[in-house]
Amino acid sequence: MSNIQTPSSGQRYVVPLITLTILFFMWGFITCMNDILIPYLKQLFSLSFFESMLVQFCFFGAYFIGSLIYFVVSSKWGDPVNKIGYKKSIIAGIILSAVGCVLFWPAATTSLYGLFLTALFVLGLGFTILQITANAYVSLLGPEDGASSRLNMTQAFNALGTTIAPVLGGHLIFEFFADGDSISPQATRIPYLIFAIILLLVAVFISTVKLPSFESSDEEKDVKGLGALKFTHLRLGVLGIFCYVGAEVAIGSFIISFLEQEQIMGFTESISKNYLSLYWGGAMIGRFLGAIYLNHNIDFGKKLIYMVGMATLVFLLIFSLVDLTFSQVSFFLVFIVLNLLGFLIGKAAPARTLAIFAGINVLLLISSIVNTGAYAMYSILGIGIFNSIMFSNIYTLSIAGLGKYTSQGSSLLVMAILGGAIVPVIQGALADQLGVQLSLILPVVCYVYIFGFGIYCSKKLKHVEQTGPVAGGH
C-alpha cells in the first residue's frame, strides 16, 4: 500500500488513536461475549451442544460470507475500501455491528433462537468490515516506523476486551439481569443495547476526526484472478488460520461447560466465567510478551527485563479483574514461566516459535482429556497463553514473498476465519455423542496441523525466520 497523504511531523493523532483503541477493546469484548451467550442460550432454549454452537457458526460464518463477497467484488469491480476510503469503511462496519447489537432486543423480547442467530450474523458482518479495514488504518496514525507498535497496542486492548467480557458480561447476563435464580430471556436486551450505543458514539467521534487517506498502488489494482494460490505456503497458511481460529474459539466456547462437569470441578456459570477470563487473559499476556521478544531492535538482556516486568503487570491486572483468590490463580504463573521458556527456545524465529507453542497446546489438550479435577482445569486454561502469537505468525508466514498478490492473499486468510464457525459446531456434535472432555480431540488435530505448518515454514521460509512477524491477534 502507498500513502497519498502523510501526516506532517507536527500533526498529532493521539485522540483518534485512543478512539480506535476503544473500538478494538469493544470489538474484543463483544466477540468474547459469545462464550457467555452459549451456556445462556443452551439453558434458555434447552439446546444440545451442537445447537448451541450455532452461535459461533453464525457469528464466524459471517466472516467467511462477508470476506467472500468482498473478494468477489474486489476482483471484478475494484477494491471497495479503496473507492470509498478506510474511514468511511470503518464507520460502516461500526454501524453494521451496532445494528447487530440492537437486533438482540427483538430476539430477547420474542425469545426466538433464530433471531438471536440472525443478530449474531449481522454483528459478524460488521466485524468482518472492521477486520479488513481497522488494522491497516491504525498503521496510518503516525510515522511508518511506529506502525507495528501501534498495532500491537490496539491488539493488546482487543485482548483486554476478551479478558473482561467473561467477568462483566457474565455478571450482567447470569446475575444482574437474571430473573432470580433462573435464566431470563430478557437478560441480553439492555447489555447489547448499551454495546450498540457505545459503538455508535465511537462511529460519530471517528467521523469528526481528520485522518490520512491512502489507496492501493496501480500494480495492486491490476491484480486479477487467483494468482495468490500458486504459493504453497499461502495455501497451507489458509488452512492454518482455519485451524487456529477454530480451535481457539471452540475451546473458549466449551470452557464453562467443561468446568461444570462433576469429574472436572463442578463449578456454576458464575464461577466458571472467572476462569474463562484466565484463558483469554493468557492470550493478552502472550501478545505483550511476543511484541517484545519478536522485536529485533531490542537487545536480549532488555528483552528479558521487559518481558518479566510486563508479564507481572498484566498478571496483576487480570487478578484484579477476576473474582478469585491468589491461591486460585497462582497456578497460572507456571504457564507464564513456560511461555517465557518457549520464546527463548524459539529464538525469535516466528515459524519455530509457532511450532513450539502448537506442540505445547497439543500436550495441554491431551492432559485435559486424560486427567480430571484441577489438573484437567489447569491444562485447558493454559492453552490461551500459547495461542497468543499464533494468528500473527501464521498470517505473516503465509503472505511472505507474495509481492503484488499480498492483498489477495490477505483476503483469503480473512476468509479462513470461517474455522471459528465450523470447528465449534463439529465439536458440539462430538460433545453430544462422546462428552465434552473427549470432544477436545478435535482441537488436538487442529494444533497438530499448526505444528506441522510451523515446521514446514521453518525449513522453506528462511528469510522470514531472520526478520520475524508483528505480534498481534485476530
From TrEMBL:
Q: Per UniProt, which keywords does this protein have?
A: Cell membrane, Membrane, Transmembrane, Transmembrane helix
The residue ranges crossing the membrane are 12-41, 53-73, 85-107, 113-138, 159-178, 190-213, 234-258, 278-295, 304-322, 328-346, 353-370, 376-400, 412-430, 436-457
By its UniProt entry, which InterPro entries does this protein fall under? MFS, MFS_dom, MFS_trans_sf, MFS_TsgA-like
Membrane topology per the entry is: Multi-pass membrane protein
Family annotation (PANTHER family): L-FUCOSE-PROTON SYMPORTER, PROTEIN TSGA
Q: Where is the Major facilitator superfamily (MFS) profile domain?
A: 16-462
Sorted alphabetically, which Gene3D superfamilies does this protein's record hold? Answer: MFS general substrate transporter like domains
What species is given as this protein's source? Olivibacter oleidegradans
The protein's location, in the record's own words, is: Cell inner membrane
Name the chain's protein. Answer: Sugar MFS transporter
